[in-house]
Write a structure and sequence with these properties.
alpha+beta, three-stranded antiparallel β-sheet, 4 helices, 24% strand, disordered N terminus
Length: 104
Amino acid sequence: MAAEMCFACTEQGYAKPATKVVCSVCKKEVSWREAVAHYMGHGKKSGNDVICPICNTKVKGQEFRSHVRRHFAVRRGASYLCGICGKSFLTLKSLLVHLMKTHE
């Protein structure tokens, strides 16, 4: 499942920079800058919850954005990699901030 979520990763276990991401839901090619926002657009409302288009999990509406961002976080040893552009971070929190500022 992690390989599906890490769009820039290869089978060798490292990330390479990407400028375009192919959506696994609609197969549309989107800019890496709007990858997270694009996936959020595929969420289906179910009452106060939203069903994640990536893992089909029912998530509370207010937690949906954070949930989608976490699909793009890749753990590599003691650091975290952005699954979209391959940039490395020491903490998950700093990676999530990067995703929010760069890929939404």
